[in-house]
Design the sequence.
């Protein structure tokens, strides 16, 4: 036990052991099984799954809708964080509590609720039908469900940075004659950009894998509104384990790549900012 | 002039925020309760007292208790280990602990089938010994464990990091052993962060759908948790029953949000 000597506090072998056991059994072991499974039936099976146009279409729907939803959430997240930290209108505490709702409400509940709300007989569905828009059972419905799911990630990552933003900087900008728009665009936006990017990444990663809140509203037509996680479930129901795990590994790796890419962008964006030190 | 324009833009921005919150967040919540109560309160309550619904509630409670206890103990150990010592590979370990957050719930269910399903690593062995994990309650527990894995550690770690290790070192020098230090020094101080993490784990465990749906097998009354039962009811066009169950889950979610706000308020007020 080489590490025993270096720690002043007792209990390192014990807590480290428990942690390793806990992580090993519940995370490493099952994910290892996932990574190894596609190869079991040979590379031909993998290539067959990868060449399936339906798989390709499902990935396009998943990534396209997740990207759209996260992009649409971006201004909303900045707006809500700004309202909560700076404007504090009457009832901002209620807004604050509501932000966490999408995170707390079970996905299946979100799913049936949004499907009913935007369905042909729902409150919003009827309203939008007058405008000639059909939301439920189309990719638009998927985007709406994902926007609901992703919103708290953006608000909650931008909020603390905005809170710690020194007011002197803004006062300086004001004294130097900046208009409110310039102040926002030139001073505040660069400061909250890293946090916004990581919020965007979190929301995007969550949206790619989202299942429960989407399947009820999506309609699930192959090639049009079928998401990748649903395709995994369908492959499993056909006992096509190799197909299911190939899609799953691809989904997992691309989600991790996106997260990695976003944290790289975040590093780039935070270069030269003093703000990051408080994080 | 500037102040006037400023207040107009403030008014507009606040209006937009209200509109977003109202349309995106509150409207769905209102819909859950109106749909549940469409045929009156008694219909909603009697839908919840159906045998299958009761079985689903019982199963969810059972799974949630096991999962919360396991992940809380593991989470405390991990948070302690990761904040009170420095060792090689710490960042990697943190990354592994946070990994389940970015894994799709469907994958979180699938991985357990690969270990314990019929085609899985130990599927044959389990079948030979007449044990079932996949498509049964143990599978549901495992899937929920995976999904709620990081939350206690994630909420505890920032707080314990900020605590430092002075208090623990002092306790140790005064002759306290590891357990005494943990129970009487570290955890009492971090209790609000810990409670907040436990609450988050509980809320996620109650509501998990995707992961559980893959490993459950969907036998009404046996392996259906509350969210799965909602799906069955909804697809069977029993809208009132589905939304009654949904309203119950939404109430749980709302009380978690409320309690967590209170806890966070408490640990912000606490002198550090």
Sequence:
């Amino acid at each position: 036990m080489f590490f025993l000597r270096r720690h002043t506090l007792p209990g390192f072998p014990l807590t480290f052991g428990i942690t390793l056991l806990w992580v090993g059994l519940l995370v490493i072991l099952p994910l290892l099984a996932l990574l190894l499974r596609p190869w079991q039936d040979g590379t031909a099976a993998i290539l067959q799954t990868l060449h399936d146009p339906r798989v390709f279409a499902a990935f396009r729907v998943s990534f396209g809708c997740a990207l759209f939803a996260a992009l649409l959430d971006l201004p909303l997240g900045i707006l809500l964080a700004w309202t909560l930290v700076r404007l504090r209108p009457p009832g901002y505490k209620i807004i604050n509590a509501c932000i966490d709702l999408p995170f707390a409400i079970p996905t299946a509940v979100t799913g049936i609720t949004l499907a009913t709300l935007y369905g042909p007989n729902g409150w919003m569905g009827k309203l939008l039908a007058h405008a000639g828009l059909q939301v439920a059972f189309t990719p638009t419905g998927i985007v709406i469900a994902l926007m609901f799911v992703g919103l708290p990630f953006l608000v909650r990552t931008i909020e603390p940075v905005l809170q710690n933003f020194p007011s002197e900087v803004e006062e300086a900008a004001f004294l130097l004659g900046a208009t409110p728009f310039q102040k926002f665009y030139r001073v505040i936006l660069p400061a909250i950009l890293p946090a916004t990017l990581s919020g965007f990444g979190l929301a995007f990663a969550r949206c790619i894998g989202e299942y429960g809140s989407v399947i009820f509203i999506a309609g699930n037509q192959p090639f049009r509104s079928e998401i990748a996680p649903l395709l995994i479930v369908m492959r499993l129901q056909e006992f096509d384990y190799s197909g299911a795990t190939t899609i799953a590994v691809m989904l997992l790796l691309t989600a991790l790549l996106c997260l990695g890419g976003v944290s790289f962008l975040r590093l780039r964006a935070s270069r030269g900012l003093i703000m990051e030190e408080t994080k | 002039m500037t102040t006037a324009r400023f207040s107009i833009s403030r008014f507009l921005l606040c209006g937009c925020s209200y509109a977003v919150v109202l349309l995106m967040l509150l409207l769905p919540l209102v819909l859950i309760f109106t749909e549940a109560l469409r045929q009156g309160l008694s219909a909603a309550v009697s839908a919840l007292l159906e045998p299958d619904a009761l079985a689903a509630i019982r199963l969810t409670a059972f799974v949630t208790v096991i999962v919360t206890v396991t992940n809380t103990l593991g989470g405390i150990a991990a948070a302690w280990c990761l904040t009170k010592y420095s060792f090689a590979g710490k960042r990697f370990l943190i990354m592994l602990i946070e990994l389940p957050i970015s894994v799709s719930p469907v994958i979180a269910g699938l991985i357990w089938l690969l270990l314990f399903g019929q085609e899985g690593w130990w599927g044959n062995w389990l079948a030979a010994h007449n044990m079932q994990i996949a498509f049964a309650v143990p599978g549901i527990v495992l899937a929920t464990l995976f999904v709620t894995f990081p939350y206690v550690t994630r909420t505890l770690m920032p707080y314990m990091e900020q605590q430092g290790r002075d208090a623990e070192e002092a306790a140790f020098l005064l002759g306290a052993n590891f357990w005494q230090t943990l129970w009487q020094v570290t955890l009492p101080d971090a209790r609000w962060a810990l409670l907040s993490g436990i609450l988050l784990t509980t809320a996620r465990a109650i509501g998990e759908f995707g992961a559980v749906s893959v490993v459950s097998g969907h036998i009404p009354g046996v392996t259906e948790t509350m969210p799965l039962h909602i799906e069955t009811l909804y697809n069977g066009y029993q809208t009132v029953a589905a939304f009654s169950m949904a309203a119950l889950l939404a109430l749980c979610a709302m009380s978690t949000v409320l309690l967590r706000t209170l806890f966070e308020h408490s640990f912000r007020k606490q002198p550090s």
Notes: DSSP finds 14 helices and no strands in chain B. The radius of gyration of chain B is 23 Å. The longest helix of chain B spans residues 2-36.
